[in-house]
Every structure is written in structure tokens, then in C-alpha cells.
Specification:
It is a single chain. The chain is built from 13 helices and ten strands. It is of the alpha+beta class. The protein has two domains: about 150 residues, no CATH class; about 110 residues. The strands form two sheets. The chain has a six-stranded antiparallel sheet with strand order 7-6-5-10-9-8. Helix 3 runs parallel beside helix 4 and helix 8 packs across helix 9. The two termini are about 20 Å apart. The structure holds zinc ion.
């Protein structure tokens, strides 16, 4: 890495992860997820006794999922807000994201006039994890803190395919939403897989694993509506046990190659999560490139998959 500051979110998260491993034991996730609210209150008092986070509270903040705010007094006194109506899992990631802004960006937020009174974060930044700059840093910190790779990889090896039973068990292990757990898995899996989030027969957004992206398998949803294939579970509104287990879809249904499709519906958020998994070896191009190069090339050519 040419720019060491890019690693700061991961370094800060690793520092706290190591501390929690020492204090609670390396097997801590067998017992419970990270208590991120307690951690935010306690850790902020340790690193900034004069300027800590005083409370983590639910508020109605329309258009946003979370915020890191400060009051008039100096030195600044902080609070984390999370928008009403979030599931426990989503709230956990939201609070971790705002805690990241506190650890990494509180000085910037306090000094920069753009952030008068605090920083407010929307769903794209927190749930879909497609923010840039400090939003991306906060997501990286939150994912690393709540779902450390050293534990996640042991639970679901990089070469293994996933099923909903495993993925939902992991979402409970880490106290996060199913979406957040799947996004984390897609970050390191060496298998070719894509998550598709849809509603009413259309994909709202989708995220491929690196291996899928490299083989040209991704779904474009930016500035376009992607209509699900008629045979897809979500298009058929089939949310039976068979959809959860999944089926093999023939070449031509989703892509010019067969794949395994499984689908889970969230009533709470009125959307479907479909996971597509391909056979191990698919079409490859320029395999010597690393993932950044491949992705940058998509971005430059205006064909960015909607990550
Ligand atoms: Zn944010």
C-alpha cells in the first residue's frame, strides 16, 4: 500500500479486537457478539476522558440510519444516534459505523464546517457499504470490529460454498443482519458468488465476490432496473423451504452458465436476498491482475458493478 493512512481503519479495529480477545478470550464469539454500545461508551472514556461518547440513543432522523453528534460545550461531548425501527443486527452495524467515525474522524468532524453539529449517515453508506472516503473507512472499521476475519474464516473457509443455515448462524454469531454477514463473506471468499437484493421482481443492488467479478459475473443496477429472470424464486414469489435450500438454474437463466440459486425473504424490510453461486472454474480474463486493478478498470470504463 502506497498510502499508509488507508490502513488506519483496519489498524484501529485490530487494536480493539486484540484487546477484546485478551480480555474476553479468543473464543468470545462462541458466547456473544461484540457489545458495541458498551464498547463505544467505555472505549471513548479511555481514549478521550474529557471528550467521550455519553450516550447511544434511538432517534427519528429521517433519511439517515445513524449519526455522530456533538453539543455546544467545549471540549466536545459526543453522542451516537441510530434511526428508529432498525433490527438489532442493523443497529449493531450502525452503531459500530458511528463509533468508527468517533475513533477515526472526530477531529475532522469537529473542525470542518461542513459537519455543523455532527455527521449524518444514510443507508447507502451504512447498509449497502457503498460510501467513499470517511464513509468507506467507517464501514471497513465496523465490519472488521464486528466480524473479524480470523474468526469468520474459521467458521466459513474461503474455498467453501455457503448455505443460508451457515450464513444466518454467522449473522447471529456476530449480532449483525444477514445482509452484513453475506457482504463480509463476499469480501474474502475465493468462490464465485453474487448477492442480489430485490423487491417486486427487480434488483435494487447486487454485490459479487472478487472471483465472480474477475470472471465477468456481476449484475449492473446503477442507473438501470435489473429485472429478475422469470424463473428466479424472488420473481415467482416462492419463499418456501425449497427456495432457502436452493436449486440449480440452467445456463441462460441468469448467466450463460449454470449456477446455484437460493432465496430468503425479509418481511421486515420487504425485500429478498438471493445468493447465486457458480461452479469453481468459470471464464477468466487477465487473471494476473489484482482485484483493485480489475475494479478500477470497470470504473474507468463506466461499467462499474454496483458495489
Ligand atoms: Zn458514516
Amino acid at each position: 500500500m502506497s498510502d499508509p493512512t488507508r490502513l488506519r481503519p483496519l489498524k484501529e479495529a485490530a487494536r480493539i479486537t486484540q484487546m477484546l480477545d485478551v480480555v474476553l478470550g479468543a473464543d468470545r464469539f462462541d458466547r456473544m457478539p461484540v457489545d458495541v454500545i458498551g464498547l463505544a461508551l467505555e472505549y471513548s472514556r479511555q481514549i478521550a476522558p474529557d471528550s467521550p461518547i455519553h450516550e447511544v440513543v434511538e432517534r427519528n432522523i429521517p433519511g439517515c440510519v445513524g449519526a455522530l453528534v456533538y453539543g455546544e460545550a467545549l471540549p466536545r461531548q459526543w453522542a451516537i444516534l441510530y434511526h428508529v425501527g432498525q433490527s438489532d443486527g442493523r443497529r449493531s452495524f450502525t452503531v459500530a459505523h458511528e463509533f468508527a467515525h468517533y475513533v477515526l474522524h472526530r477531529q475532522l468532524i469537529e473542525e470542518d464546517r461542513r459537519f455543523d453539529g455532527g455527521l449524518y449517515c444514510d443507508e447507502n453508506a451504512v447498509v449497502r457499504r457503498v460510501g467513499s472516503g470517511i464513509e468507506k473507512e467507517a464501514d471497513e472499521f465496523a465490519a472488521a470490529l464486528l466480524m473479524p476475519f480470523h474468526d469468520f474464516r474459521r467458521q466459513l473457509p474461503a474455498k467453501a460454498r455457503a448455505d443460508f443455515e451457515t450464513l444466518s448462524r454467522l449473522s447471529k454469531r456476530y449480532g449483525v443482519s444477514l445482509t452484513a454477514a453475506i457482504l463480509r463473506w463476499l469480501e474474502y471468499t475465493e468462490t464465485r458468488a453474487i448477492m442480489v437484493v430485490s423487491n417486486e421482481g427487480f434488483a435494487h443492488w447486487a454485490k459479487p465476490s472478487t472471483a465472480a467479478l474477475r470472471s465477468g459475473r456481476y449484475i449492473r443496477t446503477r442507473e438501470t432496473l435489473f429485472e429478475l429472470p422469470a424463473q428466479a424464486f424472488a420473481a415467482k414469489r416462492d419463499y418456501s423451504d425449497a427456495a432457502l435450500t436452493g436449486v440449480t438454474q440452467q445456463a441462460g437463466v441468469w448467466f450463460p452458465e449454470p449456477l446455484h440459486e437460493m432465496c430468503f425473504r425479509s418481511e421486515r424490510y420487504d425485500q429478498e436476498i438471493t445468493v447465486l453461486q457458480f461452479e469453481a472454474d468459470g471464464p477468466r480474463f487477465q487473471p494476473e491482475e489484482d482485484e483493485t486493478d480489475v475494479f478500477d478498470r470497470f470504473v474507468r470504463s463506466g461499467q462499474a458493478p454496483d458495489l
